[in-house]
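In this section we walk through a basic example: taking a raw amino acid sequence and producing a predicted 3D structure, encoded as discrete structure tokens. The instruction is simple. Fold the sequence below.
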Amino acid sequence: MKTTLLALVLLLPAASALADATAVKLSDVGRSITFRDGAGHRGDYGFNGGTYSKDMFDGNFTGYGYQNTAGAEIVIPTTGLDVNGRDTGVAWYVTQFKVGHKGNTVYSLYYTTEPEPADILSHAKDPRTWVPIDGATGKQISGTQTYAVNAAVTAVKYVYDTVLSWTASLAEVEVWGIDPSEMGCQHPSLTAWEAVSGSATCTEYGVERCKCTVCGEVFERTALLPLGHDWQTHLATPGTSSTYGSGSLSCARCGETIVFNIPLDLPTLGGVASEGLVQFTDLSVSSSAPDGGGAGPDDLIDGEWDWGWGHYWFAATRSESEYIQYDFGTEIDLTKIEWSAPNHALTLKFYLWDGETEEPFFEVPVAKVGSAEYQRGSRTFKGVSAKGIRLHIADPTGIGYNGISPVGLSELHPYGTVKGAGLLDVLRTKILLY
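The resulting token sequence is shown next.
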């Protein structure tokens, strides 16, 4: 897990922030929510190869879908409705903009205070001025995040800054607002945000608080990433030269435990790394196909060992500097690595990785065998401890894709156990006593 600070803006009133008014959900598909492609043109649900529909507004924050067009937008009106359901054009006070995201692409959120032009359909792009929502631009973070708007606005929008073609990313957008005529205070001025000591936990964000200088209402926002687990190793049975031992890992702060009765497939203890996602095993890559191409790091651990489309990862280039990287929550005994590589001449170059430097580990020259598109391989280890591993691929041929022929791999699975439970790197000899 990365340890940089976040500027997420989460609105969580310590008390009822607006005791005299009730926020309502404004992001209803019946409210003429509009979509625009990367050129700003309006489209229907599922625009330009995406899978989005009314499911984006059903309250399911983990039902991920994909969108293939970078720069595409979801525009949500935040004006009031009359008793007949007609738009009044009156800007409502928007409190929250919630996003459920997988954390594998970048997005930004904006609002506008200007009314939608009557001739909006004649414009190639929405002509209104859009203001970035505080702390909600250039975000790449997993899970459900709630950003504060705290203003009377006419519309908000979600923008796909980046996309991964045919790869799920966004699950849900949800916007909440209040009729300004029902508010006693619109909180025109807030104090500086102050950190709440001890508010961050192993898996939850820490918070800051501020209050309205007019009415005194207190608000909270997320400000720090989770602490992550402080893993401690407990060796129950040491490994020998022929048998694996056993043990467990436990977090010194929260007690989270992982049991290693046998060596485990380490990707099952995590997955693709993402900002704010706490997991024992983090998988990352130097790059993926420049336009998504249906090839992301998640394809390295999807259990599809063949070379079918969508079953393998490839980088943006054929450079040997491209890499696949695994980071583990603490040092473990590495027991085995399994891989599935393209079936042509190349070299897999493995390194031990400590978070800062690479140490050469072993190399595997791959030679073409038969006519299959791929070939599987593995290597077992004795007496090898690691905090992480990296793989570089020296491939003069590369994977055929759009003329760039990048390096690629179908699967990569490291196995391990607690330190001390791996096989000992010793030579057994017979000693005769006379």
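Looking at the output, two observations stand out. Residues 24-183 form a domain with the Jelly Rolls fold (CATH 2.60.120.260). The chain is about 0% helix and 40% strand. In the next section we compare this with other chains.
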